[in-house]
């Protein structure tokens, strides 16, 4: 293989390594798998990525992923308008919806407060959260953040932010192991955590 070809493979591996949970070995395996596919399969993958980046934006209300102004959840008038669940990223909404135990609306923070990485309250969707709680008449706010140090710190900050409002703040029950990520929790455990949520 020529140096030029090696450069192309190296660049592909380098790009794949930037994906979460993908190390050097996995990136290399993925790169060689993609290159072993026929042109149609490889170009379909590339086109899917391009099309998703072009056409998927953030919902103007909850900041979930959406191909229109509103995501499918926010455009669904049959959901419980008195409940709002706060999550870190859009992937958690997928996990919640798969569990089938929550029928309210969501608010996506797009991150957690993390001083060590320079992420402060102004860097995530907290102002927008307060605006929604002040204006939309929610009765219960479910804080559903990962049970790690950044998740706990963000949860306490949110509790203080929302203290002036007449709203019941709850958290997921502690059936979820400390330090785990919600996107990897099985649906039955998550369903129990939702059903058994407690006052924050």
UniProtKB/TrEMBL annotation:
User: What are the boundaries of the C4-type zinc fingers?
Assistant: 59-74
Q: Cite the GO molecular-function annotations of the record.
A: DNA binding; zinc ion binding
Q: Which UniProt keywords apply?
A: DNA damage, DNA recombination, DNA repair, Metal-binding, Zinc, Zinc-finger
Q: What is the lineage of its organism?
A: Bacteria, Deltaproteobacteria, Candidatus Acidulodesulfobacterales, Candidatus Acididesulfobacter
Task: Cite the Toprim domain residue spans from the record.
Answer: 82-177
Q: Which CDD domains match?
A: TOPRIM_recR
Full protein name: Recombination protein RecR
> What's the stated role of this polypeptide?
May play a role in DNA repair. It seems to be involved in an RecBC-independent recombinational process of DNA repair. It may act with RecF and RecO.
State the Gene Ontology BP annotations: DNA recombination; DNA repair
User: What family does this chain come from, according to its entry?
Assistant: Belongs to the RecR family.
- Pfam families from the UniProt entry: RecR_C, RecR_HhH, RecR_ZnF, Toprim_4
Q: Which InterPro entries match?
A: DNA_Rcmb_RecR, Rcmb_RecR, Rcmb_RecR_Znf, TOPRIM_dom, TOPRIM_RecR
């Amino acid at each position: 293989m020529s140096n030029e070809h090696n450069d192309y493979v190296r660049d592909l591996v380098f790009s794949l390594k930037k994906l979460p949970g993908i190390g050097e070995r996995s990136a290399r395996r993925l790169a060689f798998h993609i290159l072993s596919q026929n042109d149609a399969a490889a170009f379909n993958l590339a086109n899917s990525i391009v099309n998703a980046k072009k056409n998927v934006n953030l919902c103007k209300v909850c900041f979930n992923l959406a191909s229109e102004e509103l995501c499918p959840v926010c455009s669904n008038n049959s959901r419980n308008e008195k409940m709002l669940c706060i999550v870190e990223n859009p992937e958690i909404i997928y996990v919640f919806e798969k569990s089938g135990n929550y029928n309210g609306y969501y608010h996506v923070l797009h991150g957690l407060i993390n001083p060590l990485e320079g992420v402060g309250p102004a860097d995530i969707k907290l102002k927008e959260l307060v605006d929604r709680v002040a204006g939309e008449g929610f009765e219960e706010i479910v804080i559903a953040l990962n049970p790690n140090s950044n998740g706990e710190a963000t949860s306490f900050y949110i509790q203080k932010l929302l203290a002036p409002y007449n709203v019941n703040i709850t958290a997921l029950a502690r059936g979820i192991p400390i330090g785990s990520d919600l996107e990897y929790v099985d649906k039955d455990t998550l369903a129990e955590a939702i059903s058994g949520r407690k006052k924050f």
